[in-house]
Write a structure and sequence with these properties.
It is built from 14 helices and 17 strands. It is of the alpha/beta class and 409 residues long. It has a seven-stranded mixed sheet with strand order 4-12-11-10-7-5-6, with helices on both faces. α3 (59-71) runs antiparallel to α11, α4 (82-94) packs parallel to α11 and α13 (352-361) crosses α14 (384-408). The longest helix has 25 residues, at 303-327. It is globular. It starts with 7 loop residues before the first helix and ends with a helix. Pathway: Amine and polyamine biosynthesis; ectoine biosynthesis; L-ectoine from L-aspartate 4-semialdehyde: step 1/3; Amino-acid biosynthesis; L-arginine biosynthesis; N(2)-acetyl-L-ornithine from L-glutamate: step 4/4. Keywords: Amino-acid biosynthesis, Aminotransferase, Arginine biosynthesis, Cytoplasm, Pyridoxal phosphate, Transferase.
Length: 409
């Protein structure tokens, strides 16, 4: 096969323009380092948007990929396979759930969860119990249903009439939620920490109140743990540290460490309302993805690894606090585990992208969560030496942004 020469400009020629990627093209990664096509190295604090929780090129995952790749990649949903059954067993043993459904992404996992919640409510209570309550600034995916349920209207505008029966309430406002949840509510969907919405952790009392209101009105509580799940917050799933158990939980991102896989977890009683043929997927739960996810779950559920998440979390917060003492950049540093947000103060309003671009120029891959929040979601096993080196580079980037800001004032 003849090699085709490509570069960043090729994106603008051949790709549908729904993304605006960075000016450099990542080519390979190992651990928490990434190299671009020009050979420059970057410290990775983004983790592919909270995905590569075990870093790039993890040797145990590469071994599984090779071994399963030699056996069976795909078989179709007319059959089951041993890797997906082992994965389901691991997840149900670790969690409240009795049953698992596997898809290819977080959006598909949420789509399944929302469809199941409506099916359950209609089966048990009739056709009027269809209302779904979500929260402003939430993000649940890009399918038409999930983008309508998500609380960021900019993602749903311009596509015509949206599904009906969806309400959006202020996040962490329990009185308004209690006022809204009623006999027509079939489900409440919530992120324990809003990721795309600014890295905002839920108040424990807020989630506890949602649980009680759902119980009172026979509504299902759905936790979207696509970003917070699989060790990201310091427990395998975030619900475990809140002491609030959902009826349905969705998971993806880190579950495959970069191999596309999503999961919906629920109880026997609720799962029974998805009969044969009611919902489905072609690729979901394929043996290649399931075998990789099984190894990810095995490794990340290790208590020692989860302890390390909290150690790294404290190290990142300490670096951010030190940088803030020097530059006075942040109004708040927040988050749980290795999902951390640093909100810019009014003096640097809407400058998060400037920091991200300066960080890239200094050899750091970062994330933002809106125009005012720097987001950190690195590997859960990031070497401390890489963490420290990364923050030395970030400090240089911030120095440049602050200097530029001083000049423009």
């Amino acid at each position: 096969m003849t090699d085709i020469n490509v570069n960043r400009g090729t994106f603008d020629e051949v790709m549908v323009p729904v993304f605006a990627p960075a000016s450099f093209v990542p080519e390979r990664g190992r651990g928490s380092r990434v190299w671009d096509t020009e050979g420059r190295d970057y410290v990775d604090f983004a983790g592919g948007i909270a995905v590569t929780a075990l870093g790039h090129g993890h040797p145990e995952l590469l071994k599984v990929l090779h071994e399963q790749g030699e056996k069976l990649w795909h078989i179709g949903n007319g059959y089951t396979n041993a890797p997906v059954l082992r994965l389901a067993k691991r997840l149900t043993d670790l969690t409240f759930a009795d049953r698992a459904f596997f898809a290819n992404s977080g959006a598909e996992a949420n789509e399944a969860a929302l469809k199941l919640a409506r099916r359950y409510a209609i089966d048990n209570h009739g056709p009027d119990k269809i209302e779904i309550i979500s929260f402003t600034q939430s993000f649940h995916g890009r399918t038409f249903f999930t983008v309508s349920v998500g609380g960021q209207p900019k993602y749903a505008e311009g596509f015509g009439p949206q599904p009906q029966g969806i309400r959006h309430l202020p996040y962490n406002d329990l009185p308004k939620a209690l006022e809204a949840i009623g006999p027509k509510t079939c489900a409440v969907i919530v992120e324990p920490v809003q990721g795309e919405g600014g890295v905002l952790p839920a108040d424990p009392a807020f989630l506890k109140g949602l649980r009680e209101a759902c119980d009172q009105h026979d509504a299902l509580l759905i936790f979207d743990e696509v970003q917070t799940g699989v060790g990201r917050t310091g427990t395998f799933y975030a619900y475990m540290q809140y002491g609030v158990t959902p009826d349905i939980l969705t998971s993806a991102k880190a579950l495959g460490n970069g191999f596309p896989i999503g999961a919906m977890l629920t109880t026997d009683e609720i799962a029974a309302h998805f009969k044969v043929g009611v919902h489905g997927t072609t690729y979901g739960g394929n043996p290649l993805g399931a075998s990789i996810a099984e190894k990810v779950v095995e490794l990340i559920s290790d208590p020692k690894l989860l302890e390390g998440v909290n150690e790294r979390s404290e190290a990142i917060k300490a670096h951010l606090a030190r940088i803030n003492e020097r530059f006075g950049l942040f109004s708040e540093i927040r988050g749980r585990g290795l999902l951390i947000g640093a909100e810019l103060n009014d003096a640097y309003k809407d400058r998060a992208k400037d920091v991200l671009n300066a960080a890239a120029a200094n050899g750091v891959i970062m994330l933002i969560a809106g125009p005012n929040v720097l987001r950190f979601a690195p590997s859960l096993v990031m070497p401390m030496a890489d963490l420290d080196e990364g923050f030395a580079r970030i400090e240089k980037a911030i120095e440049q942004v602050v200097g530029a800001a001083a000049v423009t004032r």
